[in-house]
Q: What sequence folds into this?
């Protein structure tokens, strides 16, 4: 029982990080049909900012703020430089563009920073644990869950009550009609990238605080997982991305914890098998996007 | 008659397909102008090209004396021209009120915004009653009212309507046509693509009949209603 609770906390922490990353992918995809594989490099940028600020001895709160700010700005720059010129191109062109951006950034990190993994100085507090009602939880896990909840509440408020957020939902559902209303394509898309960069920044802080290191390829694995989560949830659906992120977090953690030792080497295939099984039953994901329904009418 | 909108040799192409092959028309201030014609005649493409939803392949469009041929779609609502698209296309996952809020997106002036809400809610009390509801849960007729209300939020001088009565119950069709007359009395100029020929001839001032991407016949609605020319175009006769 204790192990189950412990692993559930871990699953929420990991699933929350996946959910934030999947949300970032989903926001951009829902509006411009781009699957941004360079999303992982935004995380890596956040990781390096954490590293350099840590070396410079800045207070951790300021460091976190700077890391998130840098990923937000980097996402907006990415849109302006790489994705705006191919905005009306096919999905495949945009996908390949995002791979190119991703690889260019990886090579830049390798050449100008280091090929090797670099340690990131973190406050002692993050590696401490607290005892809650008889079982022990890492502070970083609790912070990850808290940060995820704060981000999800913020995003829900933004998308429901802010004019820009409502316009993003409108544009995701029917971009042409949104433009007819006078909603500017440039500002909605830049806003979508800014939000996705913000989410990648928070995810980077959470990811790095679990491993205390950063390397040029750091973003690849979590973003691949987030991509799976976004598809599991329903590509382009924001609620789906959150559901898919948590679902994938639970699948991974529970399999790692409860699968018999002899089966552990098949953990990933079994996990992906579950995802495929869900998609066979629900081909559009757990919570399909509204634009999909619209197309069928 | 001062032309509010002038189109000269307007062309629209989808790849190799020429949907609109050079049409000239005018919409005068305060008029209701109907565009009639069989399916595929190029009516909707013409409207979509006017508001920048499909690119103009050739020709010129001027609105209130300004060239808007290549103006991006998002600049036209603030300039005073907007379209109620075919099939309504309300934002189904947004509430009724949020749909209307999007209609007023481009306007900053607080007083104008307040006046727009009053106007639309008094024209369509049902939208006020259902303001919290998701637009996707409204009936077809209510969605059409919402689509028109959303377009009216930016107080257009020229309102274009693409098949506003398509797929609606007869009672709602009556309401839509009455509404067009009400709007005209309030000083809105209207350009309407319609499949309901008889009703369009009743409310329109002037009519353009399109066939094969060209204007086949034009004239005052009264003239065309008696001459039978419209029916000939539909039936492919002379």
A:
């Amino acid at each position: 029982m204790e192990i189950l609770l412990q692993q559930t906390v871990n699953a929420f922490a990991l699933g929350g990080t996946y959910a934030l990353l999947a949300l970032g992918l989903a926001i951009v995809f829902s509006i411009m049909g781009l699957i941004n594989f360079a999303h992982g490099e935004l995380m890596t940028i956040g990781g390096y900012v954490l590293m350099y600020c840590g070396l410079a001895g800045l207070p951790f709160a300021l460091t976190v703020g700077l890391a998130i700010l840098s990923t937000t700005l980097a996402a907006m720059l990415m849109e302006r430089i790489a994705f705006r010129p191919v905005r009306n191109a096919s999905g495949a062109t945009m996908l390949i563009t995002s791979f190119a951006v991703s690889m260019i950034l990886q090579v830049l990190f390798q050449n100008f920073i280091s090929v090797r993994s670099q340690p990131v100085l973190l406050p002692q507090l993050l590696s401490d644990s607290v005892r809650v009602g008889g079982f022990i939880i890492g502070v970083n896990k609790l912070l990850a869950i808290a940060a995820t909840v704060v981000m999800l509440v913020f995003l829900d408020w933004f998308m429901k009550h802010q004019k820009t957020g409502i316009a993003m939902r409108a544009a995701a559902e029917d971009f042409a009609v949104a433009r007819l209303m006078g909603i500017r394509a440039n500002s909605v898309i830049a806003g979508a990238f800014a939000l996705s960069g913000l989410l990648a920044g928070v995810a980077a802080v959470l990811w790095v605080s679990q491993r205390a290191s950063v390397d040029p390829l750091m973003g690849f694995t979590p973003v691949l997982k987030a991509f799976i989560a976004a598809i599991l949830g329903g590509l382009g659906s924001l609620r789906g991305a959150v559901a898919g992120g948590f679902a994938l977090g639970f699948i991974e953690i529970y399999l790692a914890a409860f699968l018999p030792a002899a089966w552990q080497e098949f953990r990933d295939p079994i996990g992906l098998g579950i995802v495929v099984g869900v998609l066979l039953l629900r081909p559009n994901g757990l919570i399909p996007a509204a634009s999909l329904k619209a197309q069928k009418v | 008659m001062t032309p509010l909108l002038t189109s000269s040799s307007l062309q629209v192409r989808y790849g190799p397909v020429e949907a609109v092959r050079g049409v000239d028309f005018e919409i005068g201030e305060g008029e209701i102008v109907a565009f009639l014609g069989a399916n595929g005649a190029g009516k909707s493409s013409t409207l979509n090209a006017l508001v920048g939803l499909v690119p103009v392949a050739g020709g010129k469009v001027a609105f209130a004396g300004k060239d808007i041929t290549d103006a991006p779609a998002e600049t036209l609502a603030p300039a005073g021209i907007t379209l109620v698209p075919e099939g309504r296309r309300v934002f189904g996952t947004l509430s009724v009120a949020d749909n209307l809020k999007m209609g007023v997106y481009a306007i900053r002036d607080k007083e104008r915004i307040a006046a727009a809400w009053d106007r639309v809610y008094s024209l369509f009390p049902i939208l006020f009653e259902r303001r919290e509801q998701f637009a996707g849960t409204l009936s077809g007729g209510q969605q059409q009212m919402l689509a028109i209300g959303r377009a009216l939020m930016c107080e257009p001088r020229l309102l274009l309507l693409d098949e506003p009565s398509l797929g609606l119950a007869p009672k709602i069709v009556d309401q839509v046509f009455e509404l067009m007359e009400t709007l005209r009395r309030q000083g809105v100029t209207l350009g309407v693509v319609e499949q309901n020929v008889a009703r369009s001839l009743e409310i329109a001032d002037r009519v353009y009949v399109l066939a094969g991407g060209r204007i086949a016949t034009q004239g005052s609605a009264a003239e065309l209603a008696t001459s039978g020319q419209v029916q000939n175009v539909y039936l492919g006769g002379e």
